[in-house]
Amino acid sequence: MKVNCTKENLYKSLDLVSHVASKSSNLPILSNVLLRVKNGIIELISTDLEIGIKSLVRGKIETEGEFTIPATLFSNYINLLQKEKIEIFLQDKEIIIKTEDSTTKIKGENSEEFPILPEINKNKSVSVEAEDFKKAITQIIFATAQDETRPEISGVYFKFSGQELIVAATDSYRLAEKKIKLKQAVENKTELILPSKTLQELLRIISINQTKTVDIYLDENQIMFVCDETELISRIIEGQYPDYTQLIPADFKTNVSLDRNDFIKVIKTSSLFTKSGVNDIVLSVRPEEKILVVESTNNQLGENIAKIEAGVTGEECKIVFNYRYLLDGLGATSADEIILSVNDANSPGLIKSKTEDKYIYIIMPIRQ
């Protein structure tokens, strides 16, 4: 194996794939990346057995072959090189990396034990604008459950239907949902759950590649995302996602329209006086005065009461929320003005943009 390439091209691909390489006592080779030169293509591949990433490296091929190299060492070394032109070749069980003024040997392992990435059927695919997809995942991924006692809600729900993709996440205390338009309609409705780690890696790939379009290929137990010359393959979480639509009230008795930034500032101020571990703030809607009152009390620290001018329709209401969950939902939307909809102290509240209905955030109250 012998190839020539630039530092820029090699490091970009290494940055994409080396992040997935994991340290495994059972299978040490997983901490390596596979450098494969075959059929006129230079590829870098890594996997942790749940996620696999393959990225093409632009360069000149002299001879083909493949070998695995410690991911972190390889990536850190290439990043520190000053010279642009790099020659890489295999000699015995070492990769030789030569530039104009340096020669480095890195010990690795033969590729026989490196796991083979599954082949994904590419007959059917759907595409989505990368920026739309990136924004949608960013708006919902924080709401996934952080532990895996219920694996299905530790992941993100995907529903492909017609020309629409719905993504949603919940940890039982709050729910975030976003609808995205697909570039073409899907023939059959498909529902699946993806690990949040997969989507975090996908966000990195979109950002590094500055991808314009994400192509999605669905298989029985796997999914593949293609971003330019990078492929990400992931397992699908088994199980049934809860029917979260039952949590969304059909109607609300009270709707409050207010400036998002003003609301965030008041919540942050009030958070200084919440009870440790409870994070409780009290929202009181006063329709006659056209205000929202935000209160918090800590017996050791003191209390805070603040009023916000708001457009209010409906009934008077008092409800208690976890301020952290409120801030997460408000931070996920870029709308200048938001709508807070509530029913009573024991029912979930809803946050959405006043002008855009593709994103909703449901938050459960703290019951007194």
Question: What percent strand?
Answer: 35-45%
Number of domains: 3
If you consult CATH, what is the topology of the largest domain?
DNA Polymerase III, Chain A, domain 2
The share of residues in helices is 10-25%
Spatial strand sequence of the major β-sheet: 14-11-12-13-26-25-24-18-22
What does this structure look like?
The chain is of the alpha+beta class. The chain folds into 3 domains: 2-113, DNA Polymerase III, Chain A, domain 2, CATH 3.10.150; 125-244, DNA Polymerase III, subunit A, domain 2 (DNA Polymerase III, Chain A, domain 2), CATH 3.10.150.10; 249-363, DNA Polymerase III, subunit A, domain 2 (DNA Polymerase III, Chain A, domain 2), CATH 3.10.150. Helix content is 18%, strand content 43%. It contains 6 helices and 26 strands. The protein has helices spanning 7-17, 71-80, 130-140, 196-209, 260-271, 323-332, and strands at residues 2-6, 32-38, 41-47, 51-57, 59-63, 65-70, 85-91, 94-98, 103-107, 125-129, 155-161, 164-170, 174-181, 190-195, 213-218, 222-227, 230-235, 254-259, 280-286, 291-298, 302-309, 311-314, 317-322, 337-342, 349-353, 359-363. A 9-stranded antiparallel β-sheet has the order 14-11-12-13-26-25-24-18-22. The protein has an 8-stranded antiparallel β-sheet with strand order 6-2-3-4-17-16-15-10. A 5-stranded antiparallel β-sheet has the order 5-1-7-8-9. Strand 15 (213-218) and strand 16 (222-227) form a beta hairpin. The longest helix has 14 residues, at 196-209. The protein is elongated and about 80 Å long. The relative contact order is 0.11. The model has no long low-confidence stretch (mean pLDDT 94).
